């Protein structure tokens, strides 16, 4: 039977840079895990594409997916639903590939219960003031939403103890290197060879 892949969960407070780090990771050639595209009821932002950034759904469609148990986890976050399609995760792990989720902290805790063997990485800001800077400079939120997100961020940062690793997002490329190093180390610790090294071991 094929060895199951590793479920990698990257989480952390809003505005810390999860999306930015994830996009950088997946633009790099030596990233050997598969990204699970989430479902959301949030409206697409400028430049976002359905099926690439998210699967954009109506609230009715999303609630239908919840009732059909099609989501590995879901959360309501700042007025919108977000969730991870379970079929993609199961299929990809069973093919022996690592799956990468980039999700907020309530969802990450649900995944921890369902997949205690997953690898949980908390992305942390260098400081709270830098976190606020990032949310403000992104410019996608109103002042009320910024204050909401900062309030949530303080509650979310307390949860970092529940994770296997904390990675500081001081510089995006450095954060990516740390995440890749953790994944390789974790494969070794679990006595499996990371997919990117398997081809080195193939004998002609
Ligand atoms: N629980 C959960 N959170 C998600 C999922 N997909 C994205 N998120 C999180 O939802 C939050 C809001 O995402 P988004 O609206 O794209 O804004 P941004 O990432 O803060 O720019 C972020 O913390 C995402 O990491 C998901 O499938 N499940
Ligand atoms: N290491 C970093 N240094 C400076 N700015 C960053 C860094 N990482 C992300 N940012 C910026 O912070 C803002 C929030 O990043 P984003 O990826 O949307 O966060 P999240 O997905 O965690 O909500 C964006 O404007 C992004 O360009």
From TrEMBL:
<dbReference type="Pfam" id="PF00625">
    <property type="entry name" value="Guanylate_kin"/>
</dbReference>
<protein>
    <recommendedName>
        <fullName>Guanylate kinase</fullName>
        <ecNumber>2.7.4.8</ecNumber>
    </recommendedName>
</protein>
<dbReference type="InterPro" id="IPR020590">
    <property type="entry name" value="Guanylate_kinase_CS"/>
</dbReference>
<dbReference type="InterPro" id="IPR017665">
    <property type="entry name" value="Guanylate_kinase"/>
</dbReference>
<comment type="similarity">
    <text>Belongs to the guanylate kinase family.</text>
</comment>
<dbReference type="InterPro" id="IPR008144">
    <property type="entry name" value="Guanylate_kin-like_dom"/>
</dbReference>
<dbReference type="GO" id="GO:0005524">
    <property type="term" value="F:ATP binding"/>
</dbReference>
<feature type="binding site">
    <location>
        <begin position="12"/>
        <end position="19"/>
    </location>
    <ligand>
        <name>ATP</name>
    </ligand>
</feature>
<keyword id="KW-0547">Nucleotide-binding</keyword>
<keyword id="KW-0418">Kinase</keyword>
<dbReference type="GO" id="GO:0004385">
    <property type="term" value="F:GMP kinase activity"/>
</dbReference>
<dbReference type="InterPro" id="IPR027417">
    <property type="entry name" value="P-loop_NTPase"/>
</dbReference>
<keyword id="KW-0808">Transferase</keyword>
<keyword id="KW-0963">Cytoplasm</keyword>
<dbReference type="InterPro" id="IPR008145">
    <property type="entry name" value="GK/Ca_channel_bsu"/>
</dbReference>
<comment type="function">
    <text>Essential for recycling GMP and indirectly, cGMP.</text>
</comment>
<dbReference type="GO" id="GO:0005829">
    <property type="term" value="C:cytosol"/>
</dbReference>
<keyword id="KW-0067">ATP-binding</keyword>
